[in-house]
Amino acid sequence: MAKQAGVHLTYSESDDEELTKAVLDGDHEAFAGLVARHQRKVLGFCLSMLVNPQTAEDAAQEIFTKAFTALPQFRGGAAFSTWLYRIAYNHCCNIRAKDTRTRQESLDSMAESERDKVLSAQVPGAEPAETDLSAMALGELPAEYRAVLALRLEGESYAAIAAALGTSVDSVKARLRRARAILRIRLRHLLPEDLSKPTEHK
Predict the structure, then answer these.
(1) Model confidence over 186-197: pLDDT tens digits?
(2) Residue pair 46/87 in contact by the 8 Å Cβ criterion
(3) Taking the model in full, what pTM does it have?
(4) Overall fold of domain 128-191
């Protein structure tokens, strides 16, 4: 349980700053409060970045483990959520890069006939379900486009996204426009209505 000025607070009543301070002061159980506050958004971000639900769930757990280990390095210059998203983004990018290398190595080791079968199986003749089409289109976006789209859909401001990804607000806006344009082209009839409307600036 986090404390403030001698008053006991439940984790739900404590904010990120209080919980972070409690963890750094030795109350490691307070980290459960940080997990509870951010778990849904981190999992949603991982799902947007990695598409596969099981991979996303595993990644989210690994991200919180990394955050706990790295917490002494958190200086409070940015919001805890911004710092956490930065860890999440880097971790998801590493997973994507590793998966790409593994897949390429597997294909390289196959005989040509076997490789053709694997590649052709990824483009079946039958029309996939709409959710599969959405996942496929999202999965084809570059990581930096997918990240800004995922964070914006979570309600993060342009400034917060820029801080989390280590870039500028103008770059975030440009990536977001490009991500939406790509999705509109590929999924005109599947794109949610709210994504086709201009987003309110913050």
Answers:
(1) 777 554 555 545
(2) no
(3) 0.71
(4) Arc Repressor Mutant, subunit A (1.10.10)
